[in-house]
C-alpha cells in the first residue's frame, strides 16, 4: 500500500489516498503504523476518500486507534495533497469531515500550496454540546480543581471537545502527568483535548497541547482555535491571535460578524513510501 507522510507545524500524520487504495481495519492500522519505533511513526493516519457532498472526505484515526472528528493541521495537509497530486485542482475546496463540511482557501504560488486557511466554523460553548458535565450551561473561566491544583478552565468545542487552561509558563507544565489525568477526567464523557495557554500579549500566546488519543503533539489546529476563542472570551487577547506551538505558528481569527473561526498555517510533504499490510 502506498502512503504519504505529511506534517502541519509538527502535527504529523500518515495519509492514504483512498481514491486508489482500500483500507481494512483502519483503527488497527493506525496503532501499528503510528508507533515511532516499530512503525512509520505519526500522530495517526488520515484517509483521503471520495465524497458525495464535497470535493473529498477525510477520516482521522489517532495513534491509539480511536477515531477523531476533526484535525485542523490534518485538513490543511489534505488540501495540499489533493491539489498538488491532481485530485482536485481548485483553490477553494470543500472537505467532508465527521464535524461537517469545511471550506479551505489555498494560497498557491508556482503551482504549490504554500499555506491554507480553513473555515473552522463557529465555536460551541454550551456544556452539553461540547460535551462536559458541569452545573452551568457555559464553562468560561471557571475555577476547577484537577488533582491537587486549581485551574481557570474554559471548555469549548471546535467540532471536538477542548479544555483550555491558563498557566504562567507552559514550559513548566508537567504535561505527561497532568495531560492524561485531565483528558480522562469524569467531567468529559468523551474525553477531551487539553490546551495549556500562556498569554504573551493581546496578539500572541504560547500553547502546549495534550491531544485526546495521541498524547502531547507538536501542534493542534482545533486546539489553537479553541485557545484563541477562549482567550478572547476571557478578555485576555483580541479576536486575532498568533498561537506559538512547539512545531510552529498558527494564525487564528474569530470573526465578530460571522462568529466563524479562521485558521491559517502551512502544510508540508515529508516523504512517500510503500508499506506491507
TrEMBL record:
Keywords, comma-separated and alphabetical: Amino-acid biosynthesis, Cytoplasm, Isomerase, Lysine biosynthesis
Binding-site residues, substrate: 11, 62, 72-73, 160, 193, 211-212, 221-222
Database matches in InterPro entries: DAP_epimerase_AS, DAP_epimerase_DapF
Marked site (Could be important to modulate the pK values of the two catalytic cysteine residues) residue numbers: 162, 211
Catalytic activity, EC: 5.1.1.7
Catalytic residues of the enzyme: 71, 220
Family: Belongs to the diaminopimelate epimerase family.
Name of the protein: Diaminopimelate epimerase
Organism in which the protein naturally occurs: Caproiciproducens faecalis
Amino acid at each position: 500500500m502506498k502512503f504519504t507522510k505529511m506534517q502541519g507545524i509538527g502535527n504529523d500524520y500518515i495519509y492514504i489516498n483512498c481514491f486508489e487504495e482500500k483500507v481494512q481495519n483502519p483503527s488497527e492500522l493506525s496503532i501499528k503504523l503510528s508507533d515511532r519505533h516499530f512503525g512509520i511513526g505519526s500522530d495517526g493516519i488520515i484517509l483521503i476518500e471520495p465524497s458525495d457532498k464535497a470535493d473529498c472526505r477525510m477520516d482521522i484515526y489517532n495513534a491509539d486507534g480511536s477515531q477523531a472528528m476533526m484535525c485542523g493541521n490534518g485538513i490543511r495537509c489534505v488540501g495540499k495533497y489533493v491539489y498538488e497530486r491532481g485530485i482536485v485542482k481548485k483553490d477553494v475546496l470543500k472537505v467532508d469531515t465527521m464535524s461537517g463540511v469545511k471550506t479551505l482557501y489555498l494560497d498557491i504560488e508556482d503551482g504549490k500550496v504554500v499555506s491554507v486557511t480553513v473555515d473552522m466554523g463557529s465555536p460551541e460553548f454550551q456544556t452539553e454540546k461540547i460535551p462536559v458535565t458541569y452545573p452551568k450551561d457555559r464553562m468560561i473561566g471557571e475555577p476547577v480543581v484537577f488533582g491537587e491544583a486549581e485551574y481557570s478552565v474554559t471548555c469549548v468545542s471546535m467540532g471536538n471537545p477542548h479544555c483550555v487552561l491558563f498557566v504562567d509558563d507552559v514550559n513548566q507544565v508537567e504535561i505527561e502527568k497532568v495531560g492524561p489525568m485531565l483528558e480522562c477526567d469524569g467531567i468529559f464523557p468523551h474525553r477531551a483535548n487539553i490546551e495549556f495557554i500562556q498569554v504573551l500579549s493581546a496578539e500572541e500566546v504560547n500553547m502546549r497541547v495534550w491531544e485526546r488519543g495521541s498524547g502531547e503533539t507538536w501542534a493542534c489546529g482545533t486546539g489553537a482555535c479553541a485557545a484563541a476563542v477562549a482567550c478572547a472570551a476571557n478578555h485576555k487577547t483580541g479576536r486575532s491571535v498568533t498561537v506559538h506551538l512547539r512545531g510552529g505558528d498558527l494564525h487564528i481569527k474569530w470573526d465578530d460578524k460571522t462568529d466563524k473561526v479562521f485558521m491559517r498555517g502551512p502544510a508540508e510533504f515529508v516523504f512517500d513510501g510503500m508499506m506491507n499490510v
